[in-house]
Amino acid sequence: MADNGLIIIDKPGGMTSHDVVARVRRIAGTRKVGHAGTLDPMATGILVIGVERATKLLGYLMGHDKTYAATVRLGTTTVTDDADGEIVDRVDAAHITNEQIRAGLQGQTGLISQVPSAVSAIKVGGRRSYDLVRRGEAVPLTPREVQIHAIEVHDVRRTRGEVDVDIVVRCGSGTYIRAIARDVGAELGVGGHLTALRRTATGDFDESVALSLEELGERANPVVVSLDDAVARSFPQRRVDADEARELSFGRRLTPAGDGDITYGAIDPEGAAVALINAHGKPIVVFKPA
């Protein structure tokens, strides 16, 4: 059985995140495996997998910022807002200038209201939005606030009335990159969709620590980031003594460390992660219960 910790997978295209988790379960020899943030089947890149006790971290890692490299195609609209969907409209985009493209993408940055892509895992009336779309049903989704820190344009290519724009996006959790492609295309009046998507980082974890599934299968221990290291790298630390560590193991509150909504990793004298606690000293997740 695998140790407690994280496995950083470089997900290949064509696989769902659930497919990757199923493969990791077989390799790690445990059912206690989960992921911190879904990637679409067409997307590649960083998928953070938690094993054993580290699965308790995943809900908190999902909230960390992410970085994506993507290609937006202007001039074509699809039902899924990406290349996997049926084309529903084509408009000649040859007249759109590079300056208009950059301005349109800049308008997608900051704290914005974004309607999620209809083909998403969001539940509508208890059913997944993507299931409803595939059945031909209309899916009204509520806009939500997302934080997009920056969108950098790396290249613009033009072919037969279509314009491909390579971008790098740094954003907060809950952002749909497909929706950026859809919305900038709509803003420019020519439509748009995503033709390529790669997540290059989730929080502190990037391609430098990522493994392919083939590489993972060749390792004696699949865990690449221990639970202790994952907590130390992902959260501000609060050092606790042996007595405080014991109190946390019983789920008891410590003295406050400050105000606000900061989540701390409580680290004992041996450097082991004991719990996640809030600024008021209340344990949120206990890794080593009494």
Automatic annotation (TrEMBL):
Enzyme Commission number(s) of this protein: 5.4.99.25
The family database entries (InterPro entries) matched by this protein are listed as: PsdUridine_synth_cat_dom_sf, PsdUridine_synth_N, PUA-like_sf, PUA_sf, tRNA_psdUridine_synth_fam2_C, tRNA_psdUridine_synth_TruB, TruB_C
Q: State the reactions this protein catalyses.
A: uridine(55) in tRNA = pseudouridine(55) in tRNA
Q: 4Fe-4S as a keyword?
A: no
Q: Where is the tRNA pseudouridylate synthase B C-terminal domain?
A: 178-218
Classify the source by domain of life: Bacteria
Which Gene Ontology MF annotations are present? RNA binding; tRNA pseudouridine(55) synthase activity
Q: What is annotated as the active site?
A: D40
Q: Which UniProt keywords apply?
A: Isomerase, tRNA processing
Cite a single GO BP annotation.
Answer: mRNA pseudouridine synthesis
Residue ranges annotated as coiled coil are none
What general EC class does the enzyme of this chain belong to? isomerase
- Pfam families the record matches: TruB_C, TruB_C_2, TruB_N
Q: Where is the Pseudouridine synthase II N-terminal domain?
A: 25-177
The tRNA pseudouridine synthase II TruB subfamily 2 C-terminal domain sits at 235-282
> Gene3D superfamilies this protein is in?
Pseudouridine synthase (3.30.2350.10), PUA domain (2.30.130.10)
- What does the UniProt function comment say about this protein? Responsible for synthesis of pseudouridine from uracil-55 in the psi GC loop of transfer RNAs.
Q: What's the family?
A: Belongs to the pseudouridine synthase TruB family. Type 1 subfamily.
Q: What is this protein called?
A: tRNA pseudouridine synthase B
Q: Which organism is it from?
A: Antricoccus suffuscus
Q: What is the lineage of its organism?
A: Bacteria, Bacillati, Actinomycetota, Actinomycetes, Geodermatophilales
Encoding gene, per UniProt annotation: truB
